[in-house]
Design brief:
The chain has 347 residues and is α+β, with helices and mostly antiparallel strands. The chain contains 13 helices and eleven strands. The chain has two domains: 222 residues, Phosphorylase Kinase, domain 1 (2-Layer Sandwich); 101 residues, Transferase(Phosphotransferase), domain 1 (Orthogonal Bundle). Strand 2 and strand 3 form a beta hairpin. Helix 1 crosses helix 5, helix 2 crosses helix 4 and helix 9 runs parallel beside helix 11.
Amino acid sequence: MINEVLRVFRELDKKDFRVLTGVEMGMKHFEWVPAEDLNKYTKLPSEKLDYRLKKLVRNNLVVRTFQPYEGYQIYFEGYDALALNTFVKRKSISAIGDEVGVGKESVIFEAIKEPELAIGEPIPVIIKFHREGRTSFKQVRRVRDHLGEREHFSWIYAARLAAQREYGIMTTLYPKVSIPKPIDQNRHAIVMELAKGSILSKTKVLDPEWYLDEILRQVKLTYSLGIIHADLSEYNIFVAEDCVQLIDWPQYVTPDHPHADELLERDVSNVLNHFYKKYGTKRDLEEVLREIKSEWESKAGDEAGKEISGEAGEEIGTETEADLEEDFGDDFEEEDFEEDFKEDMRG
């Protein structure tokens, strides 16, 4: 668990992280990374490497086997440590606090980011650790097909893919759509600003008509950019005095998805049902859906969704999930893990 990682995090030095990254790199090719191969990745003498490995095993950051040979695996605790180390080095966070949320496929911790100016106030942020490889058997099964003989690596692949996908769409949507500001992403984790207000499911709003209209306005705006949340409900909407914010984006789809209409209808139905049950506020579902789709459909023959780009400068509304997996697979082979390795080595 993360709490155990935090307990030992300060005891780790750059050589410990080098060994962790070496195990991570080796798992691209081995289910259990042979000890002798770690010499190649880490450039450490055998005695020093053995000392570091024993330390990591003792702190449950890697797992060791002796059958049929001495080999090592990294799991989520070690992966958490690697992501945290990168965030600290990038100054994306300066301190981490308590766990503030646990979902089906993630765990969330509060943290602090130092201000850019010395006279500024520390910025409250959260770190979202994706856990798809531990919790979503459907996701793991899907990526196993993509990985082929490297299916032992599927939990890292699944969690990392989900984090990259969510961070990518957040950088595209922000600040056009009301979402928390994305700050950084590494491996399976995302740093973002703290959502404003409180979660809708646990909040009684004073003006339900206004909040419902504002949520639907954000859904319409998102759809006009070629995106459907696909998992929207009162549990991932935050409400503040003057705004709403939509969170949890890894399952988003585009309007050309085969189940796009069904997913959009489910999103809107969840919101409408919540407001009707809690406040008696009523809207006609079909009328709301027509209004949400109106702007997108009016641009159907234009460049809809293609010229709207975010900080990452990427087009949206055009990539399918399969495209993203294929792109990620290229990174997996050639660039992404190597960049992490080089960054960790520089640390």
